Amino acid sequence: MPNLLTEPIAKLRKIIHVDMDAFFAAVEQRDHSELQGQPAIVGGDPAGRGVVATCSYEARRFGIHSAMTAARARSLCPQAIFLRPRMEAYRKASRQVMEILQKYTPLVEPLSLDEAFLDVTVATADGILAVQIAREIRWCIQQETGLTASAGVSYNKLLAKLASDWRKPNGLFVIPPEKGLDFLSPLPVGKLHGVGPATVRKLSTLGIHTVLDLRNAERETLIAQFGKTGLWFYEIARGIDKRPVQPSRQRKSVGAERTFPQNINDPQIMLTHLQEMASQISARLITIGLAGRTISIKVRFSDFETITRAYTHVQAVWRKEDLIACLPDLLGKALPVESQPSIRLLGVSVSGMLRPEESATNTGQMDLLEDILVKSHGVRR
Ligand SMILES: [Mg+2]
């Protein structure tokens, strides 16, 4: 198949994805020389119900990975060294890394403590290559933090992220525009952004296993099967990803909504949906390092009348339990007393944002926060 440009040359961007290698574990190995060369695992207690947040490459050789229970990790590698997370140390290293990235462009979008996208299109306008910038960034990170990062360079986020993963750890890989399609073709669809295990199963029932299979699928078929997401699949199979690099801005709220295929009448089922959304929001708040004081619910009735009810905590909250606690009360206030409710949409959101450490230090909950961070970090992968 001929190499094709998937985006017009004039609009081509230069995107770098920087991803620290085994970040939490690498910080521990840097700070405790006796851990170097050892299977080190940062996460929860293997005697309890904790999970692995990050493990060193030595531990990965035993089949240990993020999100696995710590107990299972210990059974795979009894000699592994288990460490409780030191979030302050990781945050400090993360700040150093993000500051280095900011020197090259203001267009830096952190995805978590240890990875970020950069749009260096402008920085490369006078002939400097994006790959030179990526090389320099990796060098600076190593000099300043003593840690290694992998980097991927390409013309959009999708490919830049795949590229950084390609030569991990301590690697650099470039996917130029004319190589994008060839790079993607043989990859299993599960490697693509937004394609989770359930989607992989559904695609495989359609005979779609690789990105090339996905590219050969009819646009209409994908849309019929997956709706709007089908259109996204159609585009990414062609190496098209127009998502901009969005520098972190102050978020005003984090929320979730669900529209139901059939109206719901049972308040208990409504509550279950609200609770599920609240847990998702909690996980997202932890990932982006925010907490909020106000919890709101939104209820849209079958006649499209929409109302919201809110509760404001004294302190910012982010834990699932705290988000969920006020839901029965809010739902009770939203539903009519006399008639049976018929609901087509429910939503939950958290606003009045604060960084969680600002409220956590007040309440001495730092340990708890670390505990939650470990769990959520595990769930993400
Ligand atoms: Mg990483």
UniProtKB/TrEMBL annotation:
Statement: the UniProt record of this protein carries the keyword Acyltransferase: no
Entry GO MF terms: DNA-directed DNA polymerase activity
Broad class of where this protein is predominantly found: cytoplasm
Cofactor(s) it depends on: Mg(2+)
Keyword set includes RNA-binding: no
EC number: 2.7.7.7
Subcellular location(s) of the protein: Cytoplasm
Record-annotated active site: 115
Function: Poorly processive, error-prone DNA polymerase involved in untargeted mutagenesis. Copies undamaged DNA at stalled replication forks, which arise in vivo from mismatched or misaligned primer ends. These misaligned primers can be extended by PolIV. Exhibits no 3'-5' exonuclease (proofreading) activity. May be involved in translesional synthesis, in conjunction with the beta clamp from PolIII.
Quaternary structure annotation from Swiss-Prot or TrEMBL: Monomer.
UniProt-recorded name of the protein: DNA polymerase IV
